[in-house]
Amino acid sequence: LRHFAVQRRFDGTKVLITAGPTYEKIDPVRFIGNHSSGKMGLAIANELAAQGASVELIAGPGNYDIRSQNIRLTRVTTADEMFEATAVRYRDMDVAIFAAAVADYKPAQMASQKIKKSSESMSIELVKNRDIAGEMGKLKAAHQLNIGFALETENEQSHAQQKLEKKNFDLVVLNSLNDKGAGFSLDTNKITIFNREGKSTSFDLKTKKEVAIDLVQAIYELR
Ligand code: CTP
Ligand code: CA
């Protein structure tokens, strides 16, 4: 059992968390998606709520085992829906954590009927989705903290630091895929946290619940 003081550390703090994948509609029965499970975002939501925060969880498709009355779940499907749900809430937040695996592109148009099979090849035109974290970074006020994630397969460190700058994050959490136990749909993760002073802290491979505790500690230390 954790000490009472820890349970109250985020009392009165409003936190928004994006989590999970987005599904971008091709036609009424098909979509472009990704393998994000939403487990990392959910673990962060559960931990912050356990420490007293009031959490708005904006989540793409998946199963979310909400452990606290302090969490309000808003379900979305597409990146556009996630953007809107985030944008209307952002100004009221003290902390925003962008843990979702947002699709970078969406079909230029959604077919109103199921696309029929015809020629030997076909292509779908894709257009860029809005950058939720990037846009909220432009709106960030002095009292707000924005936390982002980065998943890289090369030049991890410099790419993560570039994202911190570009999106105006206060912390960026690098997910290491190099380790076999880390990544999508697993219950473990290996992270490195970068701050604005260029300092980085690497953590061991841990359960997502333990990773959430480490990240929440890092956020607490920033405030
Ligand atoms: N992000 C977001 N909205 C998007 C794309 C990304 O909010 N449309 C957020 C993610 O939730 C994450 C951070 O931005 O916190 C970095 O996401 P990532 O996919 O690593 O970066 P991108 O800017 O999309 O660049 P790339 O995929 O080309 O590496
Ligand atoms: Ca991306």
Reconstruct the topology from this structure.
Blueprint: H1 4-7, E1 14-19, E2 24-27, E3 30-32, H2 39-50, E4 54-59, E5 71-75, H3 79-90, E6 95-98, E7 105-107, E8 126-128, H4 132-139, E9 145-152, H5 156-166, E10 171-176, E11 188-189, E12 191-195, E13 200-202, E14 206-207, H6 208-222
Parallel strand pairs: 1-4, 1-6, 4-5, 6-9, 9-10
Antiparallel strand pairs: 2-3, 7-8, 10-12, 11-14, 12-13
Helix pairs in contact: 2-6
The structure holds cytidine-5'-triphosphate and calcium ion (CA).
Describe this structure in words.
28% of the residues lie in helices and 27% in strands. It contains six helices and 14 strands. The protein has helices at 4-7, 39-50, 79-90, 132-139, 156-166, 208-222, and strands at residues 14-19, 24-27, 30-32, 54-59, 71-75, 95-98, 105-107, 126-128, 145-152, 171-176, 188-189, 191-195, 200-202, 206-207. Helix 5 links the parallel strand 9 (145-152) and strand 10. Bound molecules: cytidine-5'-triphosphate and calcium ion. Residues 18, 79, 98, 100, 102, 104, 129, 131-133, 148-151, 163, 167 line the site of cytidine-5'-triphosphate (CTP).
